[in-house]
Write a sequence for this structure.
């Protein structure tokens, strides 16, 4: 029966074969957790409302962020090549001179381009105005602009406060420095020299304006951090660009300017080849023009001296005979002149980092291929230097290739020059044979023919150079950027941050989690017993009953005609005692606790009263000899009692007297406080007293001292049939509850059961139950409560 009682009252412990209670397994009770949280629903609702309001405030005043997107298409010759074996050739670096979208991606993401945009558009200056909660940046409709003529490098952000004084002037200040000036005046400060230019298209609507001047390096780093550039996939040569900006129009402007700067730099790279060719031709034209002018002056002087009128008719026959040789010699000399000039240009170390002019005379395919490859490598090297240093392995590889190509150029030019010289020598040798015949011509005509030949050579060279210069100029005008814009910069219509739904979701989660965390933390840090379920998890001793909170000053709560929930709880306790004291000979009930203040005297008094109401003769023994309270609370004299009986000064009949609670309830007070309470309980008279009292009374309620402090309760335990261990909700420590486990395990107290006292209504597992049969409170008003069976747990 005892095993069944444990299982019915506690529900979590089982008895093993030795009669010992086994430890319960740790389980998670979801329903209990939900019930706990449901009882505090208003805290969750309040927390969700507060967090939702904070989320709304954050969304109301948070700075929105917009994504500005753009797309460009790069002319990548490596993409889409249909050449068989192109993969192998690519691994052999045979296509290094071709453009690569990966290289262009590095260039457009380089710091130099972004710094150029920041400096050109003065992005390091922000114009702020005061709002309700924070300062807000304005863009586009700024009534004035700050123009720095000389700005010193700084590592800190400077904030200038500008206060307009009408349309005539303003006051500007920073820290302890301030200055009154007119619009457009040049102002000198510690950071440098600047001026404020008024924009009359927009009115001065604010009292104060804040001009935030950031270091250029910091501004460039911020914009680079907010810039995203990527290739969507390896099958295309497009670059997707995205810039995060708080102001959509400003973000679109910055991204468009960055793309424009990149395209301009690309065109400039191509134009440098044409510029180099034009500069080379212009230099040669100066020389040829000077030489041609000298020859013409010599002819003029020769004719004047020799008084010649029309020498051409005289030498027509001879010229016709030697025309073919002259033409060939002139052509060869022109070619030789150009080749020598090119060879001298290439040999000059100053031109090592410059592109080589396009082929003018030399039409050899091998030479043209080498020149094109050399110029392409020079441009590739300059592009790499935009995002790398000269020590970069890729740059050094290109330097090695350029050195090899320069050697090939010089070798090719030397071979071509030798070929021209040999051809020219052969032509001159053949022309010498004709000269023998020309000697017969008068010396005057022969000299004139020499001048004419020189004039023809220079004039042919001059016309040829003019033609090539025009071709180079046309080539320059037709140069296009390496990329084109597919989609110009355009901002998303809605900000990507903050995300309203996400913020509200976080607010709800935090609103639910904050009180739940507080409750959980409170549970973890709480050292006192708060519920029956918590008590059952700490000790294997069953909980016999729960007694509700009682706030009246009268110690007696149980009266004959009172039907409150508290009285019904004592009646339930009376019923439960019948299960653990089924033998009529079992009469003595001992009440103890862990420490003082847990309600032993209150429970003992009212337990005696409720048993007396059932018609049983009950004796209430005040056996807390150290700190008695019952006699005082009942207004009874305590001059005689157990202590006077134990020492033989009083008879049992004289210390047993009516309690005044009920006619069936009697009381034995403690008597004067003895100096040795424990020794009195060990006297033989104590045992004789309990034997006599068993004959006279149906039940004996013994109120003893706390077992957790003194041994009085254990000494009286040998006379008891059952032990009621009092614990008070929110008062008894959890560690003290473990004391009952030791008392049960080593059988130090008979049939120990726990009573949880002072259970507040509405607490974790409060007592707000009854039977629903017209129960009334102390004022006589009906109380409707839920039905709860005693042995449901």
């Amino acid at each position: 029966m005892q095993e069944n009682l444990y299982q019915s009252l506690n529900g979590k412990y089982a008895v093993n074969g030795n009669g010992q209670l086994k430890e319960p397994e740790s389980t998670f009770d979801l329903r209990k957790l939900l019930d706990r949280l449901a009882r505090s629903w208003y805290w969750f609702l309040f927390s969700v409302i507060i967090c939702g309001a904070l989320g709304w405030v954050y969304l109301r005043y948070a700075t929105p962020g917009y994504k500005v997107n753009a797309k460009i298409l790069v002319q990548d010759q490596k993409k889409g090549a249909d050449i068989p074996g192109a993969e192998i050739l690519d691994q052999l670096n045979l296509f290094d001179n071709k453009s690569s979208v990966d290289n262009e991606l590095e260039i457009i993401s380089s710091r130099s381009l972004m710094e150029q945009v920041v400096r050109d558009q003065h992005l390091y200056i922000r114009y702020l105005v005061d709002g309700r909660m924070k300062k807000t940046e304005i863009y586009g409709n700024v009534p004035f602009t700050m123009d720095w003529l000389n700005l010193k490098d700084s590592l800190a952000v400077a904030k200038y406060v500008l206060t307009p004084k009408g349309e005539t002037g303003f006051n500007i200040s920073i820290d302890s420095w301030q200055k009154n000036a007119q619009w457009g005046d040049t102002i000198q400060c510690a950071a440098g020299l600047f001026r404020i230019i008024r924009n009359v298209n927009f009115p001065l609507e604010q009292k104060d304006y804040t001009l935030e001047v950031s270091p250029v390096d910091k501004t460039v780093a911020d914009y680079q951090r907010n810039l995203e550039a990527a290739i969507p996939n390896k099958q295309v040569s497009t670059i997707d660009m995205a810039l995060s900006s708080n102001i959509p129009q400003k973000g679109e402007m910055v991204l468009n300017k960055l793309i424009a700067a990149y395209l301009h730099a690309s065109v400039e790279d191509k134009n440098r080849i044409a510029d180099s060719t034009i500069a080379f031709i212009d230099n040669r034209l100066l020389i040829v023009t000077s030489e041609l002018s000298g020859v013409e002056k010599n002819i003029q002087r020769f004719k004047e001296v020799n008084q010649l009128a029309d020498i051409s008719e005289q030498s027509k026959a001879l010229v016709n005979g030697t025309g073919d040789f002259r033409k060939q010699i002139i052509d060869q000399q022109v070619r030789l002149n150009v080749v020598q000039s090119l060879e001298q240009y290439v040999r000059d170390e100053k031109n090592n980092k410059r592109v080589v002019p396009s082929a003018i005379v030399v039409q050899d395919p091998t030479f043209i291929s080498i020149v094109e490859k050399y110029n392409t490598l020079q441009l590739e090297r300059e592009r790499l230097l935009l995002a790398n240093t000269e020590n970069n392995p890729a740059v050094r590889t290109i330097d090695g290739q350029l050195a090899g190509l320069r050697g090939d150029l010089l070798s090719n030019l030397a071979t071509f020059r030798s070929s021209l010289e040999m051809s020219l020598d052969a032509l001159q040798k053949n022309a010498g044979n004709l000269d023998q015949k020309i000697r017969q011509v008068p010396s005057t005509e022969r000299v004139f023919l020499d001048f004419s030949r020189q004039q023809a050579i220079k004039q042919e060279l001059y016309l040829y150079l003019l033609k090539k210069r025009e071709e180079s100029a046309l080539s320059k005008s037709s140069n296009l950027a390496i990329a084109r814009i597919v989609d110009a910069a355009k901002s998303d219509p809605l900000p990507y941050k903050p995300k309203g739904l996400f913020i509200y979701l976080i607010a709800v989660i935090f609103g639910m989690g904050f009180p739940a965390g507080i409750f959980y933390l409170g549970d973890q840090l709480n050292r006192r017993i708060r519920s029956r379920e918590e008590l059952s998890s700490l000790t294997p001793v069953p909980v016999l009953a729960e007694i509700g909170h009682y706030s009246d000053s009268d110690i007696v709560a149980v009266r004959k005609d009172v039907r409150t929930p508290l009285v019904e709880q004592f009646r339930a306790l009376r019923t439960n005692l019948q299960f653990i004291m089924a033998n009529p000979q079992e009469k003595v009930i001992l009440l103890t606790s862990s420490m003082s203040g847990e309600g032993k005297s209150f429970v003992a008094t009212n337990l005696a009263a409720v048993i007396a109401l059932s018609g049983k003769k009950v004796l209430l023994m005040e056996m807390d000899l150290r700190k008695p309270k019952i006699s005082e609370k009942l207004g009874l004299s305590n001059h005689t009692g157990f202590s006077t009986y134990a020492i033989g000064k009083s008879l049992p009949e004289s210390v047993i007297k009516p309690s005044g609670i009920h006619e069936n309830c009697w009381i034995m007070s403690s008597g004067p406080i003895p100096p040795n309470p424990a020794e009195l309980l060990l006297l033989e008279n104590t045992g004789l007293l309990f034997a006599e009292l068993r004959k006279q009374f149906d039940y004996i309620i013994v109120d003893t001292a706390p077992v957790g402090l003194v041994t009085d309760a254990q000494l009286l335990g040998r006379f008891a049939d059952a032990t009621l261990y009092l614990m008070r909700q929110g008062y008894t420590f959890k560690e003290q509850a473990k004391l009952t486990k030791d008392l049960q395990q080593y059988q130090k107290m008979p049939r120990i059961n726990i009573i949880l006292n002072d259970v507040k209504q509405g607490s974790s597992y409060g007592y707000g139950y009854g039977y629903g049969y017209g129960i009334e409170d102390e004022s006589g008003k009906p109380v409707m409560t839920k039905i709860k069976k005693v042995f449901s747990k």
